[in-house]
From TrEMBL:
EC top class named in words: transferase
Cell compartments where the protein resides: Endoplasmic reticulum membrane
Necessary cofactors: Mg(2+)
Keyword RNA-binding belongs to the record: no
Name recorded for this polypeptide: ditrans,polycis-polyprenyl diphosphate synthase [(2E,6E)-farnesyldiphosphate specific]
Family statement: Belongs to the UPP synthase family.
EC number(s) stated in the UniProt entry for this protein: 2.5.1.87
Entry-linked InterPro entries: Nus1/NgBR, UPP_synth-like_sf
Keywords: Endoplasmic reticulum, Magnesium, Membrane, Transferase, Transmembrane, Transmembrane helix
Catalyzed reactions: n isopentenyl diphosphate + (2E,6E)-farnesyl diphosphate = a di-trans,poly-cis-polyprenyl diphosphate + n diphosphate
Main location: endoplasmic reticulum
GO cellular component: a single term: endoplasmic reticulum membrane
GO molecular function: ditrans,polycis-polyprenyl diphosphate synthase [(2E,6E)-farnesyl diphosphate specific] activity
Length: 285
């Protein structure tokens, strides 16, 4: 007992040296992390001031802040809390379309988990065209705004010609797709499951053949109606999918804005774009 105590006491200088060395290594690391946090806070504070200074009519300048800024080709808005009536919803939708077009994003999807737009889709389309032609988009050249209504009762695609402030892109069209939990939620996944069961039909297939068949059907399901977005902006008080199909969110960058659609501003939109531009996507690798 006494011998053990003496050995520990004799090792005290060594332990003290180890603790001092470890503290000497951790202190610079802590200092670097602190400096990084302060610099990051200052940068985001500066970005907020720049965005606020630019105002709602100059969201396009956000792209000019970073010459090689990475922007999504397809952006989706998951609206968990509309917080306004149909007229205000149409006005806000027109603003969102304008912001996206100003940043050369030509594929836009709106997912309404409440299904409010379904019974008022004609009024929304009319208001959207009115806002696009008279309030926001007043410059040439003229391109096409393709509105897709992907609900069970509206499977048509309507093309509306409007004047838009944008440079010509490859297709010359801007796609605006309306989605709901009826067309892209659990009912649609149930249809996929039924389709897989029908294809199987009790036939004697190997395990590899069944896996290949399921993979093929899921791939078809993912691309037949709605392509996977690069960026999804979740406008809702709670971070949730609200019935949105997870099969279409494999490699999507998701930005959460804890607001209602009515309160969603151009500053929020610009922050989401900057967050997307700064993220490193590994695509499952």
């Amino acid at each position: 007992m006494c011998t053990t105590y003496i050995k520990i006491c004799n090792n005290q200088p060594l332990m003290s040296l180890l603790f001092d060395s470890l503290r000497g290594l951790l202190y610079p690391l802590y200092l670097v992390i602190t400096i990084y946090s302060v610099v990051q806070y200052r940068i985001w504070n500066l970005v907020d001031r720049i965005i606020e200074h630019f105002g709602s009519d100059n969201v396009k300048r956000v792209e000019q802040l970073i010459p090689n800024m990475k922007l999504p080709k397809h952006i989706a808005f998951l609206v968990g809390d509309i917080g306004c009536d149909i007229d205000d919803f149409s006005d806000k939708l027109s603003q969102i379309v304008f912001w996206c077009i100003s940043c050369h994003i030509n594929s836009i999807s709106i997912y309404d988990c409440e299904g409010k737009f379904e019974s008022n889709i004609d009024a929304i389309q009319e208001k959207l065209v009115q806002n696009c032609n008279h309030s926001l988009f007043t410059e040439k050249p003229q391109h096409s705004l393709v509105v897709k209504i992907s609900t069970p009762c509206h499977k048509n695609t309507k093309t509306i010609h409007v004047n838009k402030k944008m440079e010509p892109n490859e297709s010359g069209d801007v796609e605006l797709a309306f989605l709901s939990h009826f067309s892209l939620g659990k009912p649609n996944i149930a249809q996929l499951a039924s389709r897989i069961i029908q294809r199987y039909d009790g036939s004697n297939k190997s395990e590899d053949q069944i896996k290949e068949m399921v993979s093929e059907q899921v791939t078809v399901f993912r691309h037949e109606m709605f392509s996977e977005p690069n960026l999804m902006i979740l406008i809702a008080p709670i971070k949730a999918l609200y019935g949105f199909s997870p099969l279409h969110l494999r490699y999507v960058e998701i930005s959460h804005v804890k607001k209602s659609l009515k309160s969603f501003s151009n500053q929020d939109f610009a922050k989401c774009l900057l967050q997307y531009a700064g993220c490193q996507q590994r695509f499952g690798q």
